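Why predict the complex rather than its parts? Because the way molecules touch one another can change local conformation, and only a joint prediction can capture that. The input here totals 518 residues.
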Amino acid sequence: MSEAKTQDKKYPAPQGNPETQAFWDAAKQGKFLIKRCTACGEAHYFPRSICPFCFSDKTAWEESGGEGEIYTFSLMRKSPTGPYAIGYVKLKEGPAVQTNFVDCDLEKLKIGQKVKVVFKPTDGAPLPFFTPV
Amino acid sequence: MTIKGKAYIAGIFEHPTRHAPDKSTAQLHAEVAKGAIEDAGLTIDDVDGYFCAGDAPGGAWPMVDYLGFNTRKLRHIDSTETGGCSYIIHIGHAAEAIAAGKCSVALVTLAGKPRTSVMPPRAAGAEVDFEAAYGATTHNAYGMCAMRHMHDYGTTSEQLAWIKVAASHHAQYNPHAMLKDVVTVEDVVNSPMISDPLHRMDCCVVTDGGGALIVTTPEIAKSLKKPMVRLIGHGEAMKGPRGGRDLDLTYSAGVWSGPRAFDEAGVTPQDIKYASIYDSFTITVLMQLEDLGFCKKGEGGKFVADGNLISGVGKLPFNTDGGGLCSNHPVNRGGMTKIIEAVRQLRGEAHPKVQVPNCDLALVHGTGGLLGVRHAASTAVLERV
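Output of the joint prediction:
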């Protein structure tokens, strides 16, 4: 399994909704957005209109640097589309993001490894993934 | 206000099947309902409360009609859906309803056929666009927990393997267990890697089947012929990444449901003589034992090693039917069989080779959903009187 690499596979297109459309519109421009509450100052992901920490409705979109480190991961050895690695990234801005790690040797992933966002195409808006820096 | 001692589990039934290509899911619900009602010594006409979860075809109203309840009498319905721990939550809710006089004989059913039919997909939550594409499954979601637990606390695959070894020691005495062979630590760590760091033998079985319970009042329980088993403490909780700020995959919502149940019961983990602990994966057991206070956080690996969970060998006999790891995990939902084996232990009806002597206090704990994503937990303390 040492040669396990990410493969080109087809990802489902996000359906979007009024609450999250700005995220997907920005993704089309290659921008990775998070939400920050202007009342309590906390950032969160995935985006909500009401802050999940203080319940204020004063949340605002903010572009994330898309950088962080691997909190944890698991390499799924078999699937209909081949091996893949699911995990969480802790962004520099704070929130953790569920994702897959791509464009790398999946056998060499490590907790604490520095990663950055990359977008992969779908039939709709592109989806955010992460790859080692 | 408490439910302590106000409700008794008077009927239990676990379907013997693990593979049911010749039965419908609704039929399995009916068969387990019949089994539990007869075990209690009651009839369907006595039932005035019904509890079911997401595995009941169509939900509560088609099931109530299909099963043929006396609908002039049926006066309490609860279809709380929290995955595999739904049924542990149900017994708490049944006790609340009984204590409030809303019903007197509650039936809880679980059944389904993940081996021989297609399981319906779970309805999407608000997170769907931000998670569905990444392929979270039970295996890799629990794998992520195990990976981080190993990183933070030095937990090893060998320690996790002891949990499967203990389950297999119990399963050898269960004629209905899907896997009856005793396995070793080496067998587990040498089984194929499924989703790092979990091996095939770290994973539970996939089985058709089901189970059912009767929860009733102290007065009715006393009038029946079974040993008296009552609920003396109950807790429930939920946990998720909550906007990504609260992500910590080394503990579960059991850190909240457990103390709620122990406090209500007025007992501590050290008082527990037998524990049914949800075992979708070996890591599930290890994290929950820590969260419930059977050992300190991070010391679960040491706690489960060297047979500490084997009945007659270790300090905390667990899942003496072989659990989900070896016996049965009907509909990918292990909460029901956890309650049933605890009641068997308290009645003195477990297999003689695994029966805990003078077992008068037992714990049942389960999770539902995915520990690595978002989940529910429920804890129940049961006592023989």
